[in-house]
Structures are given as structure tokens and as C-alpha cells.
């Protein structure tokens, strides 16, 4: 799951609702919308993960979904993708299911988009400066069961 840390963030961040998911996604995963193809794939390699990324932020618009944790944007459905660089210096929250190695993270760690096609976030390595978007862990929370309160560094 994904949530803006402030009410004002929703008004200033650009979003792209015109592209379709290339696989099942949950809010909080990283995508790269491409208006020329109409698709929003997840970063398949490190080069793509280091670029200007977007995060899935669809609202639950399916009445049959009774639990937030069960919500997915299915393949070929439209993705509401928010441009993360527009959130520079603002807080966001992510749930555990969108972060690789969640239990090993501590306050002060930096996470970046994984370049393995999962769309998840992962702990940054030595090449952290190469990433256009980074999220700094401010605290662990109960968001989505277990989650993170983060500050966008872009």
C-alpha cells in the first residue's frame, strides 16, 4: 500500500492515468508509464530503476474488495501512477509488501527502486547517488500491518 504523508502532496504531484499495467500491481509499487505504448511496466533493470519513476496510487474502486490488503490493479487495467520526484522532501508511507528485506531496514536507511522487474523497493547499495529517486526511512509504523514512514529524496 502507498499513502501520501501530507494532504497537500496530492495537489502538487503529477499523475499519469493513461497507461495500463503489464502485470498485477499493488499500490506502492514502482512503474514507468510510457504514453507512446500505453503501458506501465515495472523497472526491469538497474538503468530503468535509476530513472524518473512513478508509484502506483490507485484508489480502491472495486466494491467487491472488502479489505485494503486484497486490492490489486490487475494486468491490462489502468494504473494511476504518481511521479515521485514531485514529492521531493515530503513524507510518504509504504507497507511491507512493497519493500524487499523489510525486517532488516532500520531508521536512516535509504531505499531505492529494485531493478529486477518486481516493482518493489530495496535497500540502496553503494550506487545510491546514481538513483534519481530515493526514500529515507524515518520510522517503522503499523501502516498496512507493518510499514515505513519515509522522506522522498529527489
Tell me briefly what this model is.
By secondary structure, this protein is mainly beta. It is built from 2 helices and 11 strands, in the order βαβββαβββββββ. The strands form 2 sheets. Strands 1-7-11-10-8-9 form a 6-stranded antiparallel β-sheet, with no helix packed on it. The chain has a 5-stranded mixed β-sheet with strand order 3-5-6-2-4, with no helix packed on it.
Question: What would you note in describing this structure?
Answer:
It contains 2 helices and 11 strands, in the order βαβββαβββββββ. The protein has 154 residues and is mainly beta. The strands form 2 sheets. It has a 6-stranded antiparallel β-sheet with strand order 1-7-11-10-8-9, with no helix packed on it. It is globular, with a radius of gyration of 14 Å. It starts with a strand and ends with a strand.
Low-confidence stretches: none
Shape: globular
Overall tally of domains: 1
Strand element count: 11
Distance between the termini: 21 Å
**How much beta, percentage-wise?**
25-35%
H/E element order: EHEEEHEEEEEEE
Helical/strand content category: mainly beta
Portion of residues within helices: under 10%
Question: How confident is the prediction overall: mean pLDDT?
Answer: 91
- Largest sheet composition: 6 strands, antiparallel
Q: Number of DSSP helices? A: 2
